Amino acid sequence: MFDHLEIKVLPPGRFPAQVRFWVNGEDVVEVAVGDGGRGPYAADALPADLPSPLRATGEARRLELGEPDCTGDCCGFLAVVVQRFGEIVQWSDWEVPWAVHSPMPYPPPELHFDASQYDAEVARAEADRWWQVYS
After folding, report:
1. Pairwise CA distance, residues 69 & 36, whole Å
2. Is the distance from CB of 31 to CB of 102 less than 8 angstroms?
3. Tens-of-pLDDT digits for all 135 residues of the chain?
4. What pTM does this model have?
5. Nearest CA to 93 among 67, 117, 60?
6. How far apart are CA 104 and CA 37, in angstroms?
7. Which of 25, 39, 71, 127 has its CA 20 to 30 A from that of 100?
């Protein structure tokens, strides 16, 4: 059974519009870094004129998913290695901010997404630019 990804953009508030990642119905950033944490800025994660860094390719790369309210430069980032293996997208080799006490197991489990569902969700998030009105 595959994991299920939803990408949501939160409206600006204390920070500019930010991206949150819901996996299997849970906000990964909130679980890992707590209520005060944030996801990457929408403008960085979903750039208008470039492919999103959220896209999965055959080359493994580190993807920053969030950081605590004290910033990632202080306590570390919530990050994962994303890579495509044929029809599977894998998130593995997690990094969790060191000063945050969260209910997320350590190390967090590998996640495996159906590549077509993953690609469709990233494409949907890239196309939905509503948050730019507030930027």
Report:
1. 5
2. yes
3. 899 999 999 998 878 999 999 999 999 988 888 777 889 999 999 998 888 999 999 999 999 999 877 655 567 789 999 999 999 999 999 988 765 555 566 668 899 999 999 999 999 999 999 888 765
4. 0.88
5. 60
6. 14
7. 25
